[in-house]
UniProtKB/TrEMBL annotation:
Protein name: Alpha,alpha-phosphotrehalase
NCBIfam families: PRK10933.1 (NF008183), trehalose_treC (TIGR02403)
Gene3D superfamilies found in the cross-reference section: Glycosidases, Golgi alpha-mannosidase II, Oligo-1,6-glucosidase, Domain 2
SUPFAM superfamilies: (Trans)glycosidases, Glycosyl hydrolase domain
Domain of life: Bacteria
UniProt family annotation: Belongs to the glycosyl hydrolase 13 family.
E.C. no: 3.2.1.93
Any one cellular-component term (Gene Ontology): cytoplasm
PANTHER family found in the cross-reference section: ALPHA-AMYLASE FAMILY MEMBER, TREHALOSE-6-PHOSPHATE HYDROLASE
Top enzyme class: hydrolase
Record keywords: Glycosidase, Hydrolase
Organism: Staphylococcus pettenkoferi
MF term (GO), any: alpha-amylase activity
Length: 553
């Protein structure tokens, strides 16, 4: 794959712990990924992004790294990873590593040295501050709840943890820290990986340590030296290679994301932003039982689509990942089998016709659903468990709190991959670390491969279209009918060619606007148009020979 071709690629995200278990211990492993490479080649994706497989106490499922140079024995060994990379390359699949360099585990040797020896040079690898008025240095809130500062047991000092108390933030203002992190990235480049996904990379530069009127994120989100530090990382490591990079951006802005991704700035190739996936947060609060605001979804998606394209940056586009609920349960409809399949295909078509690099999260391509847990004891995720405690403390009933977790918890996407209709869905011969979805006999890879009308085959076709047609990668994007309450309509235009995308987000049939021309050749669809009516959760892409005048509302 040439250096420019990364823009035509499709990335498949693997959550190794839940992908495929070859040891019978109930947890997925690296050899389990190797075992399924033929399936991933059949799907047609280009890159496999692995969430962290480094040594870790797993307080945050691997995003708390205790040794960047070692593989967690839960997942296997360095040799297993070498084999995976080699076998993937033989199938023209590339491996993208997830790397967490905003913080380390408090089990990391750097932190243990810093914590136990206040005079240690590693003390300045982290952010230690004196207490203020016998309390934390600031009132900043951790993203997992509670104050973001943890007091040392022996001193008056506190260390900063924007996430879990076991995840201490690194001090990027220390050049020695940056040099060590560059060394780590180079090690994995030499190891043979083909790309990096940088976790919460826009939080690495902290501003003033002051009290906040909110949570404190205004002091560290897209901080004062963040672009300088990412540019330096680029120049010291992957900048002159064909490795693909994507940065996870927390609460970011369009202007910053253009800076992160415009090629001449030499920072990153592309960025994730999460604004479109907050349209079912009531008043901005994740832990609420709220339905999607469809007009807001269109508005945010198209603001970023048009803004990034016109600004010369690059989008990473996605519905799902290890931190998000299953999209077919969230923005689609899993109430019946027919609606699950129809809405799953519609959501796939809408996303994969957008501009940018699409990411598929394991199981999305077969329409896996939220599991619908019935007890807090089934949840593993620290964020969900903390949120449940808070909701109960606020006076909510257990049933109400569980309803919210069923809608919003990260564990919705972390249940094991469904391979077949055998015991534990073919994921493990042991006891799975998390419960298997009850609907695995109906929703699994083996069944989807056999069914020519499955969601899986729509995803395969969408990937082929991206590889074969430049308009999907390089075309501009033109939003249409933005105030329509049920239809998502947009056009892609490139070198005199025009593709019209029409999707119905309602469960019922909707008549198309009279001003919308539907002449042309059907590229892909999950329905037929019936006298200018599109059925519930229908989606259709029409190639039109010429670009029509912009349609009026």
């Amino acid at each position: 794959m040439s250096q420019m071709d990364w823009r035509k690629s499709v990335v498949y995200q693997i959550y190794p712990k839940s992908f495929n278990d070859t040891t019978g211990n109930g947890q997925g492993d690296i050899n389990g990924i190797t075992e399924k490479l033929d399936y991933l080649a059949y799907l047609g994706v280009d890159y496999l992004w692995l969430t962290p497989v480094y040594q870790s106490p797993m307080n945050d499922n691997g995003y708390d790294i205790s040794d960047y140079y070692q593989v967690n024995e839960l997942f296997g060994s360095l040799d297993d990873l070498r084999t995976l990379i080699s076998e993937a390359h033989q199938r023209d699949l590339k491996i993208m590593m997830d790397i967490v360099i905003n913080h380390t585990s408090t089990e990391h040797q750097w932190f243990k040295d810093a914590y136990n020896h206040p005079e240690s040079p590693y003390r300045d690898f982290y952010i230690f501050k004196k207490s203020k008025d016998e309390g934390p240095p600031t009132n900043w809130q951790s993203k997992f709840g509670g104050n973001a500062w943890q007091q040392e047991s022996e001193t008056d000092d506190y260390y900063l943890h924007l996430f879990d108390v076991s995840q201490a933030d690194l001090n990027w203002d220390n050049p020695q820290v940056r040099a060590e992190l560059h060394r780590i990235v180079k090690y994995w480049m030499d190891f043979g990986v083909d790309g990096f996904r940088f976790d919460v990379i826009n939080l690495i530069s902290k501003g003033a340590f002051k009290d906040s009127k909110r949570t404190g994120k205004e002091f560290y989100t897209d901080g004062p030296r963040v672009h300088e530090y990412i540019h330096e990382l680029n120049k010291a490591t992957f900048g002159d290679t064909d490795l693909m990079t994507v940065g996870e951006m927390s609460s970011t802005t369009l202007d910053h994301c253009l800076k992160y991704t415009r090629p001449e700035r030499q920072e990153l190739h592309s960025v994730f932003n999460f604004h479109p996936l907050k349209v079912d947060y009531a008043n901005g609060d994740k832990w609420t039982n709220a339905s999607m605001d469809f007009l807001q979804l269109k508005e945010i998606l198209m603001k970023w689509q048009v803004g990034i394209y016109e600004g010369g940056g690059w989008n990473a586009i996605f519905w799902c990942n290890h931190d998000q609920p299953r999209i077919v349960s969230r923005f689609g409809d899993d109430s019946t089998e027919a609606l699950r399949v129809q809405s799953g295909k519609m959501l796939g078509i809408v996303l994969h016709m957008l501009q940018g690099t699409p990411y598929i999260y394991q199981g999305e391509e077969i329409g896996m659903t939220n599991p619908g847990f019935t007890s807090i004891n089934q949840y593993q995720d620290i964020e969900a468990i903390n949120a449940y405690k808070t909701l109960i403390e606020q006076g909510m009933s257990e049933a109400e709190a569980l309803t919210i977790l069923n809608q919003k918890s990260r564990d919705n996407s972390r249940t094991p991959m469904l391979w077949n209709d055998e015991r534990h869905a073919g994921f493990t011969e042991g006891e799975p670390w998390m419960p298997i979805n009850d609907n695995y006999r109906n929703i699994n890879v083996a069944r989807a491969m056999e069914d020519s009308q499955s969601i899986l085959h729509t995803y395969r076709e969408l990937i082929k279209l991206r590889h074969q047609h430049d308009i999907v990668t390089y075309g501009d994007i033109e939003p249409l009918y933005m105030t329509h309450p049920e239809l998502f309509v947009y056009r892609r235009n490139y070198q005199g060619e025009s593709w019209l995308v029409i999707a119905n987000f309602a469960s019922y049939a909707v008549e198309l606007p009279e001003t919308l021309s539907i002449e042309g050749q059907i590229v892909i669809a999950n329905c037929e148009l019936n006298h200018r009516t599109i059925e519930g959760y229908g989606a259709i892409v029409i190639a039109q020979e010429e670009k029509y005048d912009k349609d009026s509302e």
